[in-house]
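RECORD TYPE: inverse folding
INPUT: structure tokens
STRUCTURE:
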């Protein structure tokens, strides 16, 4: 039997009625002749609630126990989905990560897949089961501890199963009917795309578009999984939603195909750092060791008078997620105290956001940056830091202008029109 993977996110399984609605979609695919692997998220809000429980219990919590707690929401929805399908006379059972087993690394709360053996689930399909309902987001380490894959990780579970079982397709059912030119919650002008290239979706996801977890796009690209995003609340058929595909399968080509944002960024500047070989390494080494995910970096060279001569100094600015600021500050203060680096001041701005435009057409088009900066300037949005790659341009701006900036860029690049 051909295998289909269907993933239902938190809002799609938020209560019993929605689980039933999702089960109807599964039933329709079983009727089409598929063996279905259903990946479920926790009911919406549950994972956040559990993260709160952990943080309320222990400040410097044991990451293994964090995973044991926050993975539990998926166990509930997997069992409930299996029960609902059984009520519809569809032979189904639930699988927790360790039962499959979904083998992962031991990097708790950001574990990666090591292997997903097919044997146990295939044996059940051979026995006549039509559906395997698998708890998303979780796995088991070599030490036998429960692991999780990072927030939004059920998307990645789904793609990994699609790859492991050579599924015909991996359908990600969610609360929007596809991938849009930008988050439809930010502007009603956002337009649904029929297709998007893996590379573009990878950038959009890593720049903040949480419709797919970044890692899921990476895996789909590597294992050539046919990945589709579609609505769990609407009637859907084989043409619904947005297909994430290879570049050469695209129908339309635009210079910019989407705008992404990441709200919770921080900007930190080390003021008057001595400018000498090795200084960047002396700064970013300790930050990496402290687990700070540094994103954009800017260095401004200047000079400083010391007595009768001037020395070269630099201001080093970098951005990181706002919830890592305390860790970054601690790492820098320790590096200064131990004489690894010297600086006059550490200036922290926790009120910034990152807005990015993405498109593979940028590779062969000049002027995208100029157009982006002109659009922001017209709205009087000040740019604090700029970062570019082959297919994206990102700017760091005051968080209060984030939505305005997304809308302005969406307009400037004509994204509302096909
Ligand atoms: P789920 O719980 O189903 O995993 P998520 O909340 O993780 O759903 O992802 C879906 C949400 O992603 C949408 O509700 C939407 O607000 C947001 N989103 C951000 N960027 C985009 C985009 N470019 N296209 C569609 N949705 C987007
Ligand atoms: N429940 C997990 C989360 O909220 C995983 C997921 O929904 O994909 O992050
Ligand atoms: Mg999600």
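DESIGNED SEQUENCE:
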């Amino acid at each position: 039997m051909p295998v289909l993977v269907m993933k239902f996110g938190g809002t799609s399984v938020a209560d019993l009625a929605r689980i039933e609605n999702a089960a109807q979609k599964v039933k329709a695919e079983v009727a089409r002749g598929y063996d279905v692997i259903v990946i479920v998220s926790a009911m919406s809000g549950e994972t956040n609630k559990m993260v709160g429980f952990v943080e309320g219990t222990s400040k410097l919590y044991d990451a293994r126990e964090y995973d044991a707690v926050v993975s539990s929401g998926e166990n509930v929805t997997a069992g409930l989905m299996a029960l609902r399908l059984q009520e519809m006379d569809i032979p189904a059972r639930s699988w927790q990560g360790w039962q499959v087993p979904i083998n992962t690394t031991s990097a708790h709360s950001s574990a990666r897949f090591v292997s997903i053996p097919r044997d146990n689930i295939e044996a059940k399909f051979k026995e006549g089961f039509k559906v395997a309902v698998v708890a998303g987001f979780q796995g088991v380490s070599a030490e036998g501890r429960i692991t999780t894959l990072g927030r939004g990780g059920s998307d990645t579970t789904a793609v990994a199963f699609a790859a492991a079982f050579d599924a015909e397709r991996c359908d990600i059912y969610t609360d929007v009917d596809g991938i849009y030119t930008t988050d439809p919650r930010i502007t009603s002008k956002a337009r649904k795309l029929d297709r998007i290239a893996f590379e573009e979706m990878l950038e959009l996801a890593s720049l903040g578009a949480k419709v797919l977890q970044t890692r899921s796009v990476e895996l789909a690209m590597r294992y050539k999984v046919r990945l589709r995003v579609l609505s769990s609340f609407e009637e859907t058929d084989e043409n619904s939603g947005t297909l994430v595909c290879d570049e050469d399968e695209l129908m339309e080509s635009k210079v910019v195909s989407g705008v992404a944002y990441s709200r919770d960024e921080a900007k930190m500047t080390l003021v008057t750092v001595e400018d000498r070989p090795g200084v960047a390494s002396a700064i970013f080494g300790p930050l990496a060791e402290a687990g700070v995910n540094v994103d954009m970096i800017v260095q401004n060279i200047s000079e400083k008078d010391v007595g009768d001569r001037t020395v070269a100094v630099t201001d080093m600015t970098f951005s990181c997620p706002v919830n890592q600021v305390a860790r970054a500050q601690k790492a820098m203060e320790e590096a200064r105290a131990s004489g690894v680096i010297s600086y006059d001041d550490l200036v922290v701005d926790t009120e910034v956001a990152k807005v990015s435009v993405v498109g593979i057409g940028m590779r062969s088009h000049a002027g995208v940056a100029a157009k982006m900066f002109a659009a922001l300037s017209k709205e009087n949005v000040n740019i604090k830091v700029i970062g570019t790659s082959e297919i994206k341009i990102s700017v760091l701006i005051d968080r209060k202008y984030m939505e305005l900036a997304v809308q302005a860029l969406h307009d400037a690049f004509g994204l509302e029109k096909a």
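NOTES: The CA atoms of residues 42 and 72 lie 8 Å apart.
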